[in-house]
Amino acid sequence: MSVIYILLIISIVIAVGFFIAFIIAVKSGQYDDSYTPSVRMLFEDELVKKKSRKSKLTTNKL
Amino acid sequence: MDSERCFHCGDKCDKNLIEFQQKLFCCNGCKTVYEIFSENDLTCYYDLQSSPGATPKEIQGKYEFLDQQKIIDKLIEFNDDTTQIVTLYIPHIHCSSCIWILENLNKLHPEISSSQVNFGKKTVRITYNSKNYSLKEVVLLLSSIGYEPYISLEDYKTGKSEIDRSLIYKLGVAGFAFGNIMFLSFPEYFQVDGFWLEKYKPMFRWLMFAFSLPVVFYAAQDYFIAAYKGLRSKLLNIDVPIALGVLVLFVRSTVDIIFDFGTGFFDSLSGLIFFLLIGKFFQQKTYSFLSFERDYKSYFPIAVTKITDTIETSVQVYDIKKGDRLLIRNEELIPVDGILISDSASIDYSFVTGESETVYKKSRDKLFAGGKQIAGVIELEVLKSVKQSYLTQLWSNDVFHKKTKEPFTTLTNRISKNFTIFVLSVAVISTTFWLFYDASKAMNVFTAVLIIACPCAVALSAPFTLGNLLRIFGKSKFYLKNAKVIEQLASINTIIFDKTGTITSNKKSTATYKGETLSIAEEILLKNTLRGSNHPLSRTLYEILEAKNNITLNHFEESIGKGIEASYNDIHIKIGSAKFVGKTSNTAVLNTTVHVSINDSYKGKFTFYNSYREGLSKLFNKLQKGYDLVVLSGDNEGEQENLKKLLPSKTKLIFNQKPDDKLEYIKGLQSKSAKIMMVGDGLNDAGALAQSNVGISISENINVFSPACDAILDASKFDQLYSYIKASKSAIKIIKWSFVLSFMYNIVGLYFAVTGQLLPVIAAILMPLSSISVVTFTTIATNILGRKLN
Hints:
The structure holds two protein chains of two kinds.
Chain A: H1 3-27, H2 36-40, H3 44-52, H4 56-60
Chain B: E1 18-20, E2 23-25, H1 28-39, H2 45-48, H3 69-75, E3 76-79, E4 83-89, H4 96-103, H5 105-108, E5 112-118, E6 123-129, H6 135-144, H7 166-189, H8 195-219, H9 221-232, H10 239-258, H11 266-283, E7 303-308, E8 311-316, E9 325-328, E10 338-340, E11 344-348, H12 350-353, E12 358-362, E13 366-367, E14 372-373, E15 378-382, H13 390-393, H14 411-437, H15 439-452, H16 456-475, E16 478-480, H17 484-491, E17 494-498, H18 499-503, E18 504-515, H19 520-531, H20 536-544, E19 555-559, E20 563-568, E21 571-576, E22 592-598, E23 601-612, H21 616-623, E24 628-632, H22 640-646, E25 652-654, H23 659-671, E26 676-680, H24 686-691, E27 694-699, E28 711-714, H25 721-754, H26 760-789
Parallel strand pairs in B: 17-24, 17-26, 24-25, 26-27, 27-28
Antiparallel strand pairs in B: 1-2, 3-4, 4-6, 5-6, 7-8, 7-9, 9-15, 10-13, 10-15, 11-12, 11-14, 16-28, 18-23, 19-20, 20-21, 21-22, 22-23
Helix pairs in contact in B: 7-8, 7-11, 8-10, 8-11, 9-10, 10-11, 10-15, 11-16, 11-26, 14-15, 15-25, 16-25, 16-26, 17-25, 19-20, 25-26
């Protein structure tokens, strides 16, 4: 059997795999809100820092 | 200036400054929120955005109804023994600080396990432990930090609406198939005749066939349905040639591979559907934070307080019966028509009429649903249930039940009729020619013409032009319901304006003083007395008066609904209604007035006028060249002279129009083939907005409510109205030019098709090329248009 069959099967399986991943992502609502996650991503550091020191603005200003 | 602004909410601190931890606050409410945050180590809130907060409002008793299990069940999304999930709409969500604090609610209360914000929709989804915590406590917690959720009658329904994601799925399917088919058809593009290709060709082809099946039968199904519907109502809409093209592409390609005529057009087929769906997706811009379909339900509360034998219980609004006694608190909306039992009430009917002035009512006066009580607590007796009340009955009018207004043929569909006839005749003529010349090629030519003429680029012109303009309008605060509105906007010839709240501004009132001149000391006292009052008229007057000095009053007393009195040194001042200051008014006055007396002798009165929006005359002068202008007002003729001076002479001024009259007036004009744009604001315009061809609702604050309409215009952009109409007209021109562009591609393609030389590779090049160049052209052209707009 020619290697082309194996290659085709691999490529189609991978493609279908990604396609299913896409469908699952849409179904879970990932595309419903495309803005908030982009902001939320930036907060993770803030939470860790906050424990050790008081926020910059509230202590230095005034 | 910065130091004078409240650290929490950013308002000017002109009244009672509060200093706390070296920070300034405008009121105790703001200070308390800051304290809550700093105790819980959440002051990061103020780092992300300066002064992001809102002053928490007085909510005592407002959420009593959340104790009722029946109401809770309707509001929450998920419920089991220990966990409840609720999604609340919070109008104040506006910046990254808001997201941060709301997603850290679990730090404020341990029973809240998680919370997630949807910024676009301004909602927060909160998960909490229902054993030790309740929905009411969640709402109270949110209110206490200035994020009061908005719960209206609209939320009171079973079953949350599902989001329609089918377009994304279809786009995914088409894109997936398009990519794979492209790969598989690549070897044959180069026509290399070799043993290898000959051997595997059938397999590649049948794989392509397999990939094209979901595209034709799933992704493209909307086009078949639309074409079928069009044909049934004897309309040659744009979907007819598209569906025909898709069908011919699929059948011809299948026949080709079965009889080994060639490789088929599966690549063009999937590419065509993919591009068309992208166009559809692009046009489908929605503003998730705006709603264009509102009715009274989104204004009304879920429950109000009912009094039975001095016991207060909350009752669901639909359960209110005639004869019930209701308690309406400060800032609460009256949900039903009723009779006032308390001594007096000040009702703000701005929801209903757009009129910002408050109306004073005495005991036994009739109150209409939709009014908002703004001074103290009142009691009333119910006359009619919610569904029979004056305001809600307006919604039984037919206009609100028709799904679509008069059928509107889009430019694309108008063109497609001629286009389809042209294509079919070319196909028939060329096939007839080939039948005599070389009959073996006739079928080939016939299908090739239908394939290449498939109006992909034509169908893309409008979605991309209008979709892009929709976004540009959105950026400059003109929010349209959908892309069709732009085409309708370009076709109007009559513009009707509501008066109050539309061409007048709600915020800025001007007042003139008539009477004895006040001494400087008296003026200072007047201003300082007004400072203590929260009544809207006092606030307005306070802003207008110029006296500067701050003094501490010896005595201050406010009688709700009547007026205020105060004294300083030996001057005693009374401000308020004519009766309150001791003047018996002899004439019925149309305007709103505030009277002043000092040391019990009458001094004079302030008369309030609504000020007209800036740029009003200019706008009308620009508009009068191309449009018939009408001002339809629900008010009396009091302002007629004033308006005549401001507006061009040919503007029609019509007064004393009830909501129904406005609707009928528009209907009347429409029967004389006028295309009408209605610009209004309050619920009283709702009927007129729905009846008109384009209904635009003016809004001072787009996050607050506006009636059902086609477009929402931010009040600050009112003077730009003409530019928006002009831009819509230019958009139509752009679409026409891109039609020309795509027809040129079609003519090139037709040349190949008619001469019987259409190879799959030519179709695969021409089709995407024409689509891409049309999309590029429209995008660039609309962006240039957008730049002119700003």
